[in-house]
């Protein structure tokens, strides 16, 4: 299990999060709301895993990539909220990615856990007003504060 955690941390999470949250999220948030940015990243992030379905790394059928896309969009809300609220701290996104990838090896996932996660994500979207674009000043130095710019 330690090998899995270290591999996830040092290879998977660092590599993916450098792209998703380190580069893509800040660039997209310059042009669109955190929620729209999250949906776009979630789709790309989910499709990124398609080869793992095809080569047998994931035991599910390749068409399950669509479920993976949905999960990535939903989890992306948590990642975006954490990234923006931490002032763009990429290390926190890497740690969250590592934790999520390895938690299922220790804690079984139930429908109640899924419902709880959905409730948390809905609260984050509403409380953080993630549908609103961030102003130019908040995109770079303090992405935690939404601006009064309405979606276009």
Shape: globular
The run of helices and strands is HHHHHHH
The number of helical elements comes to 7
Number of domains: 1
- List the quaternary state of the chains: single chain
Q: Please give the share of residues in helix.
A: 55-70%
- Beta percentage is under 5%
Number of beta strands: 0
Structural class: mainly alpha
Overall radius of gyration:
16 Å
Q: Low-confidence segments, ≥5 residues, pLDDT <50?
A: 139-144
Termini separation comes to: 46 Å
What does the main sheet amount to? none
Rounded average pLDDT:
84
Please explain how this structure is put together.
- The structure is a single chain.
- With 152 residues, the protein is mainly α.
- It has one domain.
- It contains seven helices and no strands.
- Helix 1 packs across helix 2 (34-48), helix 1 (2-29) packs across helix 5 and helix 4 (65-85) packs across helix 6 (111-127).
- The longest helix has 28 residues, at 2-29.
- The protein is globular and about 45 Å long.
Annotation keywords:
membrane, 7 helices, transmembrane, 152 residues, mainly alpha, globular, 69% helix
Short description:
By secondary structure, this protein is an all-alpha fold. It has seven helices and no strands.
Fold blueprint:
Blueprint: H1 2-29, H2 34-48, H3 50-54, H4 65-85, H5 90-103, H6 111-127, H7 136-140
